[in-house]
Amino acid sequence: MKQIFFTALFLTISAFGLQASQIIPAGEMRQHLFQKTTTRLADQPLSEKTERRLVRAEKRLKRIATHRTAGPDFNDPVAKWLWFGLIGLGLALLFSLVSYGLAGLMAFAGIVCLVIWIIKREQAV
Fold first, then answer.
1. For a tag site, which of 36, 106, 118, 120 has the least CB within 10 Å?
2. pTM recorded for the entire structure
3. HSE on the CB side for 12, CA within 13 Å?
4. Exposed (0-12), middle (13-18) or buried (19+): which is 114, by Cβ within 10 Å?
């Protein structure tokens, strides 16, 4: 029964010349979708509430972009002490896991760096 069904289906498809849809690259599909949505959005006026939300979203995205790309800034005289302290505490944790005697000294140096950072930060503000 299955063979008859599939044979009939094959003959029907080949007789009518049905073809599968064309393969469209993903980049072209995205570009078409982007153009379609931007033209649709450009035609509609935005309400005040929507404009405020868009401004807030832009600010949020800018803030996220700057935080993600920001790395340690050792040229900043205040921020470098924060990084020295965090690196010192990280090394102290690493040394304590491997049972080296330097862990206490590294932790003390890291805490001293963090205290210096707090004092310099308060003076800068």
1. 36
2. 0.40
3. 6
4. middle
Q: Given CA atoms 21, 27, 31, 33 in this order, what sign does their dihedral have?
A: positive
| In the chain, alpha helices (H) | 2-16, 26-43, 48-69, 79-97, 103-124
The span from the CA of 110 to the CA of 116, in Å, is 10
Residue 93 CB-half CA count within 13 A: 7
Dump pLDDT digits (tens) for 54-102.
Answer: 889 888 888 877 766 666 666 777 888 888 888 888 888 888 888 777 7
Task: End-to-end CA distance of the chain: give it in Å, rounded.
Answer: 84
Which residues touch 80 (CB under 8 Å, ≥6 apart)? Answer: 72, 73, 74
